[in-house]
Specification:
Layout lengths: L2 H22 L5 H17 L3 H8 L10
């Protein structure tokens, strides 16, 4: 799996987990979804993505979007 796919899979997992937690635990978990969306939005323009940096340190091979 490339870095790009890893970051997108992680973001999708965070969003889905946040929605499940909001439904079953407390609605304030939707703030995690808002944070994930805001982070994806800013990464699209700045190229700065903390998750990409973490996955890169873990040895995930680079893709084309996050170098």
């Amino acid at each position: 799996m490339t870095l790009d796919r890893s970051v997108m899979a992680f973001a999708g997992l965070v969003v889905l987990a946040s929605l499940a937690l909001a439904h079953f635990v407390h609605p304030n978990w939707l703030w995690l979804t808002a944070f994930a969306g805001a982070n994806m939005f800013q990464a699209a323009f700045t190229g700065f993505c903390p998750a990409a940096m973490l996955f890169k340190r873990l040895g995930v091979k680079p893709g084309t979007a996050f170098k």
